[in-house]
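Re: the pair you flagged

First of the two:
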Amino acid sequence: MKLPQINEVVVNSKIKELSILHLSDLHINKKTSTNSINQLVKLCNRSEADFIVITGDIIDCKVKFIKERLELLNKIEKKTYYISGNHDLFYGFKELKNILTNLICLDNNYEILQIKDKTIAIGGLSDRFSKFFRVKREEDKIVKILSRYENSIFLAHQPKDYIYALKSNSKLFLCGHTHGGQIYPFHYVVKLFQPFLNGLIYKKDTAIYVSKGIGNWGIDFRFKANNEISLLKLR
C-alpha cells in the first residue's frame, strides 16, 4: 500500500469551515506492510482535519491473517468514522468491527457532532451487498434521521447510494468503491454500473465526493487513476 500525498479539495457547501480527511478502499491484505499502515496512522494524526471518514473496503482478506496490522489503525487519534464495503462484508465485517475498537462504525447508524459551534449529523449505510450476508440496510431510517438536521453528512461505499443523500437533503455525500477505474480503459466499465467515477460533483444542495481510494484490487497496479487521500475543506 503506497501512500499518496494528501490531496486538498475545496468543497462549496452550506456547512462552513469544516475539514474532513477522506480515506477509502484501503484493501489491507497479507501483502500490506506494517510500515505502510504506521505511515497512514501518522498522516492521519498530523492532518488538520476535524475528523476522519473511511468509506469502506478496509480489508481484502480474512481478518485472522492481518489482525496485528488492523490493530494499528486504533492508534489514529482523531475521531474516525467508517462504514462497510463489499470486501469487508465478504471477508468478515463482524470480526473487523471487533478489532477497530477506537473507530466508530456508522453502518445504519448516526452520530451528532458539535464542531465550531455547529451541530452536524453524520450517518451511514452498510454496503449494497449487505442483503447477501443477511445484514439489513436501513435506508429509510438514516434518511429520516438526517433529514431533521440542517447540516448533515452521508456516508456509503458505492456512489449510486447518493440518491439517499439527496432524499435526506444531506449537504455532503462521501463514498469510494470505484478506484477511479484503477486501470484505464476499465473506467468505461465502471461507468456502466456507477453514476460517478471519481472526484467532486454537485447535485442540488449536495456536494458528492467519490474517492479513488488508497489500495488496489486484483493486481497492485493503477493506470490513469492515481490513488488518493483527500482533505476536504468545506467553505
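Second of the two:
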Amino acid sequence: MHPRLAHRGPWADHDGPLPIVEGTVIRLQVEHLPGQREAKPVWLWSSVTGPDDVDIDDLVEEVARCWQAYLRRFDLEHTFRLFKQTLGWTAPKIRSPEAGDRWTWLVIAAHTQLRLARHLAVDLRRPWEKPLPPERLTPARVRRGFRHLRAKTGHPASAPKPSRPGPGRPPGVKNRRQATRHDVGKTVRRDTTSPGDHQIRG
C-alpha cells in the first residue's frame, strides 16, 4: 500500500514511470468512543520506514507519536484558521519571500502574546459560548478583551504623537515600483489526443 502519484503538481514534468513512495501503514483501534458509538478502526500512513531489525520499543514510540499527532490535527487546523482570518496572515500583498517570512514571524509573535495574556484578559464570551477558566481561554477570546488589557499594561514605547498622513504619490505620476505580475493558470500544455482520434476527411 502506498500513495498513488499522478502526473500533476510537482510531478507534472517527471519523465518515465512515477516512483513508489514507501511508508508504514498503522491500524488505530480504540476500545470505546463518547456516546457509546461504534469504534471503527482508522488507517494511518506514515512516511517513516525502518529496517527489519528495528528496536521494538522505538517502533512502539513512533506509532504512538503518529496517532497522537493525528488527534491534534484539529488544533493545527484551527490555529491556521486563526492566523488567516483573525490575525491577517494572508491579508497583505507580499512582494518578496523575505517580507513573507518577516510577516509570518510577526503573526507568530502576536499569537504568542495572546497565549501569554490569557490570565490577564477578561472573558468577553458570546451568549452561546460556555464560560472557560482563565487558563483555558482561546486566543480568539483573549483578543476580544485585549484592547482593554493593553491600556492597563506598561510598554517601553513612548506615547504616539499626532500627525497627518503623508501626501502620497502626486496625481498623474506613474507608479515606478510596480509589483511583479505572474501568469495565472496552466503553464504546461500537453497533447491529450491519441493518433486514433484524428479523422481523415476526403
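The chain has a mean pLDDT of 80.

-B.
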